[in-house]
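Entry: Glyoxalase/fosfomycin resistance/dioxygenase domain-containing protein
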Amino acid sequence: MASRLNPYLTFGGDARQAMEFYQQVFGGTLNLNSYGDFGQPDPAMADKIMHGMLETPNGFTLMGADNPEGAGKQGEHKYAISLSGDDDAELRGYWEQLSEGGQVSVPLDKQMWGDVFGMCTDRFGVPWMVNISEKTG
């Protein structure tokens, strides 16, 4: 799988509705995972979206999620830029450069869903997410 770059939107509780709306606008396949899908015990967050991804027939990819309670805002932005794929060396190289001189909010490490993931804000104030999945095949 080639690495991909796409926007990742942050919502305050209505990510499901927003992502379903974008699916109506652009078409495509929408995958939504709630916090409850990953064992969130708080009933207030269980149905909120931890990760959503819309992939359209035209090649658009849009991701989005609800910001967890108490997590604060994602900087001054309601978005992040997501880098994802299975090329570990390439994506770690991007991570090192993007996080250098910036602020790491989630260290690049193995996560509960099985991928290596990290979040940082670069030295220019732009929020980034890097997700490295295991190679398949």
